[in-house]
Design goal:
Layout (H helix, E strand, L loop, with lengths): L3 H10 L2 H20 L4 H10 L8 H11 L14 H13 L4 H8 L10 H12 L6 H11 L4 H19 L6 H15 L1
């Protein structure tokens, strides 16, 4: 696939830091896909487009959600996650992405979901640990977990722990789905 058009659109629609983060996420998603024997080009594309709506205003995000998407009420609790469903929508409408696996990975890269595929998990993690803009100490901790048995699930659980701590520290509401996913990974890893 020729990424020229996508990269130009991203450069025009993201701020510089978000663009650099996006490139890091795409490369990290490709790397994780290779590690887990998944489609690395699809992972790269999902990484490129995962935040394509991130720099839209909240009003624009809400307008697109209300007109075109079905989003659960709990997803609307935090404005920082509104871009995920809209990014999947933009990927489909603006770039004609029809691959359901790519669109779902983009859609769920912020909150996750209870039944995440390995592909969705790696895009979720790539967003959290890409090397360009993410905290190196945190990323290193997550990467170490990936090398362990059940590493993908351990890494995800650690991400959820840190997310919940961060939300509480900033006095932000927590989507019940986040708690449910956290509990599910606790159950998986304790058995």
């Amino acid at each position: 696939m020729d990424y020229t058009e996508i990269l130009k659109w991203l450069k025009d629609n993201l701020n510089e830091e978000r663009y650099i983060h996006t490139l890091g996420t795409a490369e990290c998603a490709r790397e994780l896909a290779e590690k887990y024997r998944l489609d690395s080009e699809k992972a790269y594309l999902a990484g490129l487009l995962h935040d394509c709506a991130k720099c839209f205003s909240n009003d624009k995000l809400l307008d697109i959600i209300h007109k075109h998407l079905q989003v659960e009420e709990c997803e609307m609790l935090n404005y920082k996650t509104l871009h995920a469903p809209v990014s999947a929508y933009i990927a489909e409408k603006e770039f004609n992405i029809t691959d359901r696996e790519i669109l779902s990975a983009i859609r769920w890269h912020t909150l996750g979901k209870l039944e995440m595929s390995e592909f969705e998990k790696i895009v979720f993690l790539a967003d959290k640990i890409e090397p360009n803009t993410r905290d190196k100490e945190y990323s290193s901790e997550i990467r170490k977990l990936l090398d362990e048995e059940k590493g993908l699930d351990k890494a995800l659980l650690q991400c959820y722990k840190e997310t919940i701590k961060s939300l509480v520290k900033r006095d932000l509401k927590i989507c019940i789905l986040t708690i449910e996913i956290y509990n599910k990974f606790q159950d998986i890893l304790q058995n």
